[in-house]
Write a structure and sequence with these properties.
This protein is α/β, with parallel strands linked by helices. A hairpin with a 5-residue loop joins strand 14 and strand 15 (500-507). The two termini are 32 Å apart.
């Protein structure tokens, strides 16, 4: 069924004539101007700054805490020929952070090596064993962390005990007790007031590079854009500037490894934007860190060996394909394990821990419940959690750290390790958290729509205007609009297992294609139900043509959805209630009704429809015997039957009825009913399966038979349910009073 995943909030135009002049001065259309106004840009200066990001507006890197101290220590290390270790992270932000700093240090002539920790053997953040190895075997004198470090108290303390200074550059949440590092460069450090708090790890590394090089190395901005977009930080302020320019550099990048990876990802080089990074580049880089050693990524991003770059790019692309296959397999297995519990804790022995966060996110969308996905390794469960907006999973579990070997995270995502024996207690804690805090688990997240859109307004000029608000991301989402009052003229499914939908919608003379990923199972619903779409706009280039298409973010239908599947195969929602005629239907749970078989009498079904507010009803209307195709039998058929059996002293109905049906050319099912009518009217006697004609029976009309009357009623019901439009069926059930 068509069901909105979110609560829609629609922004309306609310600005006055003064701002209208600003819109015209900036050559914007009303719709784009309305978006700017609703996002808080209310005067010429604010609009100008937003529409035209400028590298000159980047903040002085030395405003960051300990930046001067960090720079002086690094320059001293270079002058003294000390060995420097850049210690990064296994995700795209950590890979690009390490690559940016390595490039800057190489330019300064430093002896610097890079190490990205392995997710499975090293874990996240500073690792004492790795530090010890590099200090003992590589004579490291200085360690610089990028995209990690503020939570690495023990490892950093160990390095200090060995006489090795550690400079931390990080952007993650700061713990109450900071590590005893030589310097901590962090935009949220409490002892400094950096103007922009939301830099990604690569953003902090880039600021360090700027401070070291004493200029803004714009050639590194492609890497900065990749890491910033991949880490899903706020794309406002300084990040907006970095990403805006970084995407321009990326479109013309000369990095051989990055070019190879982009070709394998089938990147459209004419249209490189934040989605290119978010859906094609970053997932491939992250796949390497999820499944294997992440260190080849640095060579891919900053190396210049064509052959090696091609080899690494191919390997990363294969890892991404492997990651997809693993995710699909685990998702399928996990879906079969879902139950009715308000929280889902799923585990299995062979689940790959590197992808469990992805699967948890998918199941969260499907169930709208908190989901924990775990790998079971000899009774130790380790994995990731994702939660709905209404349920703060960190607050639920953080007070119970005694149940965990390790735990960390935030409101909607967490990572954890615990013993299998503690699972019941953890689930009890999570379920109790709902009642203790009076959480409405049915509450949906909010989806902000930037206005209403008629199809007649959609053209390439509108897309170009909206693109002036790019790059889009956190805190500057791609504009979304409400589209309604349209006709669906064509529906088809796309992709593996027909997972996706392509709709052709029409409004007046305008026709537009709309893609809805992950909703292929709802093809029949979209053909039949009046729906509304929440969409954003994108460009589709195909066979030399350039057109605007809609990307559906969410969909909803108002009122009860009536879906006709009488001659179609359809996927019935798993929570659908199957109507059964001879049971009490008053205690049902759920809002979806599945009318698999039609009833013999309408009374029970009418009562159900009239006393429950269903959001959707699926009409399959199966019949065990289709009497409406045969009718109740004509006078001539009854006469022929009587004339035929009158000739026989007795007739064995157990074995000879099919032959009689064939001889009389009467369907077998109807003939059975006709014999029953004769028996009821005492025209015949049936004993032990043998029928004899009662030649003394008084003359009576066939219509006097209760069986005949019931058959006529059944035929009327069957004909109505087989041939009438489902809306007409629903109205009859809903509006007619139950006479029982």
């Amino acid at each position: 069924m068509i069901q909105a995943s979110n609560e829609w909030i629609i922004n309306e135009k609310s600005y006055g004539p003064e701002f209208e002049k600003i819109i015209k001065d900036n050559k914007l259309d009303d719709l784009t101007g309305s978006i700017l106004w609703n996002r808080g840009f209310h005067n010429q200066e604010e609009v100008e700054e937003f529409l035209n990001p400028n590298l000159e507006d980047l903040h002085d890197p030395f405003l960051l805490h300990d930046m001067e101290r960090a720079v002086n220590r690094i320059l001293y290390a270079i002058q003294q020929g000390e060995n420097i270790l850049i210690y990064g992270d296994y995700d795209a932000d950590g890979m690009t952070s390490s690559s940016v700093l390595k490039t800057a240090l190489d330019e300064l002539g430093a002896e610097a090596s890079v190490y990205l920790p392995n997710r499975f053997t090293d874990g996240y953040g500073p690792n004492k064993d790795v530090y010890q190895y590099y200090i003992d075997n590589e004579n490291i004198n200085l360690i610089i962390t990028v995209d990690n470090g503020v939570a690495g108290k023990d490892a950093i303390e160990y390095a200090g005990s060995r006489g090795v200074d550690v400079i931390v550059t990080d952007h993650h949440s700061m713990p109450d007790i900071l590590p005893d590092a030589y310097a901590i460069v962090h935009p949220e450090h409490p002892d400094a007031n950096y103007p922009f708090k939301h830099l990604a790890g690569v953003g902090v590394a880039f600021k360090l590079a700027c401070a070291l090089l004493e200029y803004v190395p714009t050639e590194m901005l492609d890497l900065v854009a990749i890491g910033t977009i991949a880490d899903m930080v706020s794309l406002t302020g300084e990040n907006r500037i970095l990403v805006k320019y970084g995407l321009q550099i990326l479109a013309n990048t000369e990095r051989v490894g990055l070019l190879e990876l982009m070709k394998l990802a089938a990147v459209d080089f004419q249209d490189i934007n934040e989605e290119t990074v978010g859906f094609q580049i970053a997932p491939r880089l992250n796949a390497l860190g999820r499944l294997d050693d992440p260190n080849p990524a640095v060579e891919l991003l900053i190396g210049w060996d064509d052959e090696l770059a091609q080899e690494i790019a191919s390997m990363i692309d294969e890892k991404n394909n492997e990651r997809k296959a693993i995710v699909e397999k685990i998702t399928e297995e996990a879906q079969a394990m879902l139950d009715d519990s308000p929280v889902q804790i799923l585990y299995k022995e062979d689940w790959h821990p590197g992808v469990l966060g992805i699967v948890a996110g998918r199941l969260l969308e499907k169930t709208n419940k908190p989901v924990i996905m775990l790998n079971n390794d000899n009774g130790v469960l380790k994995g990731s959690a994702r939660s709905i907006e209404a349920y703060n999973i960190f607050d639920a579990l953080n007070p119970h750290r005694d149940l965990f070997v390790a735990f960390g995270g935030h409101a909607q995502a967490a990572g954890m390790t615990f013993k299998l024996e503690n699972l019941p207690a953890i689930k009890e804690v999570m379920v109790n958290f709902i009642t203790e805090n009076d959480i409405d688990m049915t509450k949906k997240g909010q989806l902000i729509l930037d206005g209403r859109l008629d199809l007649s307004e959609i053209d390439l000029d509108l897309v170009k205007n909206l693109d002036r608000l790019a790059p889009f991301g956190m805190d500057n989402s791609r504009p979304r609009f409400l589209v309604e009052n349209y006709q669906v003229t064509n529906v088809r499914t796309l992709g593996q297992n027909n997972a996706h939908l392509k709709l052709r919608i029409e409004q007046g003379d305008k026709k537009v294609d709309a893609l809805y990923f992950g909703h292929g199972a709802e093809a029949i619903e979209f053909q039949q139900v009046e729906s509304q779409l929440a969409v954003n706009l994108s460009i589709n280039r195909w066979n030399g043509a350039t057109n605007v298409q809609l990307m559906v973010c969410d969909a909803r239908a108002e009122g009860v959805q009536l879906i006709d599947i009488r001659s179609k195969k359809a996927e019935i929602p798993s929570n659908a209630y199957i109507f059964e005629e001879n049971i009490d239907n008053n205690d049902i749970i759920g809002s979806v009704l599945y009318l698999k078989e039609i009833p013999n009498s309408l009374d029970n079904l009418k009562n159900l429809i009239q006393t429950h507010n269903f959001s959707a009803i699926y009409f399959e209307n199966q019949m065990k015997v289709e009497y409406y195709l045969t009718g109740p039998g004509s006078r001539e058929q009854y006469a022929r039957l009587y004339k035929t059996i009158y000739q026989y002293p007795e007739f064995d109905v157990r074995y000879k009825l099919p032959s009689l049906a064939q001889y009389l050319r009467i369907p077998n099912e109807l003939l059975v009913k006709m014999v029953q009518v004769f028996a009821e009217l005492e025209f015949v006697n049936i004993e032990d399966g043998v029928m004899t004609v009662n030649k003394e029976a008084p003359k009576r009309e066939i219509s006097e038979s209760k069986i005949y009357q019931d058959l006529k009623e059944k035929i009327e019901i069957q004909e109505f349910f087989a041939l009438a439009p489902v809306k007409e069926i629903y109205n009859r059930l809903k509006e007619e009073k139950n006479e029982s």
